[in-house]
Amino acid sequence: MTSSPPPQWSGSSNGRVVIVGASLAGLRAAETLRAEGFTGHLTLIGDEPYEPYDRPPLSKSVQEGWISEEHTTLPRRRDIAAEWLMGAPAVALDLPNRQVHLADGDPVPFDRLLITTGTRARPWPDKEQADLDGVFTLRTRDDAAQIHARLAAGPKRVLVIGGGFTGSEVASVCRELGLHVTVTERSATPLAGALGQAAGTFAAYLQRQHGVDLRCNTTVLALEGDAQKRLRRARLSDGDELDVDVAVVALGTLRNTEWLQSGGLAADRRGIVCDAACRAFDADGVVTDDIFVAGDVARWPHPLYDGELLVVEHWSNAVTQAETAAHNMLANAAARRAHKHLPSFWSNQFGVNIKSIGVPTFADTIVLTQGSTEERRLVAAYGRGDRIVAAVAVNAPRSLPAYQALIEARAPFPPDLHASNGPAELHPLPAGFPKRGQPTHDPGAIPTGAGPNTPEQQIEKEVLKLLDPRIPLGAPPLISQHANEIAMEKRSLLHEVHTGGMRP
């Protein structure tokens, strides 16, 4: 059981506040603390050596050469007068003694703690292949700089593994640079994890129209290098072998919760459970009053989504949740406020702007409500049962506020809009999201179950197969080579899931 905080910290503007995670959410929370009158000692802990920077430009603007990775540093709204402990990740939480342990240095004491540790890129599962010169993930400033240098050098072919938003944006940049690019996607379409396969058919059309060699229902079985350990070839599940110079592994993210395994909080691979006030639950399901969570690592209940705990990997959610958490860290019980931000995200790729509001992954049905794919300007609404829960717009961002109002009002689905550019008749279709438990690429917002003590999904053979990105969703290919390696990797994945840890 965790100890209760001293009563004097409730609603206090002094004391010691520690923020673990020095990125967008951590910085905005620190600024809000100071703006709302916190005068005590403030410490920010970050695993990277850089000042907080903006991640969305890394997959687009930095790769295009419009800006360098050094110029993605986030603007400061105010002087936060903080102690910065950078380049030394947190490795353990000691709740009884109210300390955060770092990879190096002395423990950092706190009276109140905010956890904003976010996510990291999901690596290629074979470490030897992942270490080949030319194989990259894209999450950090360093990643972006390395990929930009390789793309600027003019590789003969780029392989993008995963057709989510990050992978699709990288593929878009490759075509803008005149590079040959192949995208492999395990599902039937790109963006299936975020928007579903029905909407993903439009994303597939865009990619192919712009010259992308798109391989859906296809995985990469192995990456192969030469004697100097430089990437040279990729073997695909469709039987093809590609000569490639660069591979960008865009398989989604992992939440940074391993350091909390024995910390006494309700935390697992899905994230850290908190209430609507951003207060973390402990391992016994009791809400804390001095430990808060915000950003990509938080699992929290949104009133519009039937008690499901959401994890939301959106820029706007990180900002608004951090501001709410910071406010509540200083507020007494009567002055706390709930985080009810409706998730939204955007992406620019292949000459179009894609923007969404709500939680598409909560839906089971989609319907085209305005525009058409032919004119590359459209809006589609998502429904669950008889209620609208999300909407996506292509080159039509100004339409979304009306849909936001419908979602917040729990309006019926399909919506009756009487739009001048709407179809004569609405034809709802299955949205086509991947199975629950299957890792998806940049899903944006994901329902993860209800309640702080809901166990993670039981690991069975079918689920274990879904965890390995090399194995197609259908029957595995009849290829004996590397069969033992994949079997060993599956056993390693099983161990990881049961222990909650990461492989070395």
UniProtKB/TrEMBL annotation:
Q: Which GO terms describe its molecular function?
A: oxidoreductase activity, acting on NAD(P)H
For this UniProt record, give its keywords in alphabetical order, as a comma-separated list: FAD, Flavoprotein, Oxidoreductase
Its cellular-component GO annotations read: cytoplasm
Q: Where is this region: Disordered?
A: 436-455
* Domain FAD/NAD(P)-binding positions: 16-322
Residues spanning the signal sequence: none
Cite the Pfam families for this sequence. Pyr_redox_2, Reductase_C
User: What cofactor is needed?
Assistant: FAD
Ranges for domain Reductase C-terminal come to 345-417
InterPro entries named in the record: FAD-oxidoreductase/Apoptosis, FAD/NAD-bd_sf, FAD/NAD-binding_dom, FAD/NAD-linked_Rdtase_dimer_sf, Reductase_C
**Name the UniProt record assigns to this protein:** Pyridine nucleotide-disulfide oxidoreductase
UniProt source species: Dictyobacter kobayashii
